[in-house]
């Protein structure tokens, strides 16, 4: 009897110990993982708005994409898997944009190609638009203005532009810059008009990803300044720049600095030499405490080149460069 009781007790104990192993399930990625990764993406977007693109941000974005892709292998459902692919696409697009801003065009191109592929896997047309938007900017920076127009047009036909006039406006605004750089005044103004029409129809209380927060009336004014200056309408460009700087939110420090530099260029193109130099100096104050992104340093180079052209017989260009040499050369 005692032997039978011992065996029964031992069997019960063994079974109890084995229960967790029998009932345990593999980890399944779910909504909590999606929300955590989305929060990390929002943090990177905020860092980019304040400081601009840099290698640490790019590396962090790629790490986020890698984590999202690992988790999609463990997704609890097909819906979660698509959301994780979408997050991977957006993290990769963040890395691409950081590389664009840092003027690392080859790395940016590779990231954009990868992001577009991942956006397709995630069935995320908003991410696709984001990629084409960045592609248009990269092409413009490379001087490939026809490609910039093509990328803007690709952004225009993404599914999200049919649902959301704000994204349609962004796509047309980006196309306008491509046309203006090509010297196509009619195409630039036509696209700019469509961007304004789209923005007028947009509902600003709709939920959108954090990366899109930069775009609104202020950014369209900043783009208008670029387009108007490109097509030779410097007074209208200056007026748009002033209006943009009033409207750009304070947290978008990098964007404010770029709009300030655009204002300096429009003043320079009207031969307001001293005022243009004083305006350009504000860029260094706005970005104080952070290294200047490569795109901004390149833009400062454009300003200095135009300054030399506008004032070849005076020392103001040399003085301006000497005064800001150390800040301008930051990496």
Describe the structure.
By secondary structure, the protein is mainly alpha-helical. The protein has three domains: 97 residues, no CATH class; 87 residues, Serine Threonine Protein Phosphatase 5, Tetratricopeptide repeat (Alpha Horseshoe); 89 residues. 79% of the residues lie in helices and 0% in strands. Helix 10 packs antiparallel against helix 11 and helix 15 runs antiparallel to helix 16.
Count of domain modules: 3
Extended strand count: 0
Low-confidence stretches: 1-24
User: Cα distance, first to last residue?
Assistant: 84 Å
Mean pLDDT: 87
Q: What fraction, in percent, of the residue positions are helical?
A: over 70%
Quaternary organisation:
single chain
Estimated structural class: mainly alpha
Biggest sheet features: none
Give me the number of helical elements.
16
Strand content: under 5%
What global shape is seen? globular
Radius of gyration: 26 Å
Order of helices and strands: HHHHHHHHHHHHHHHH
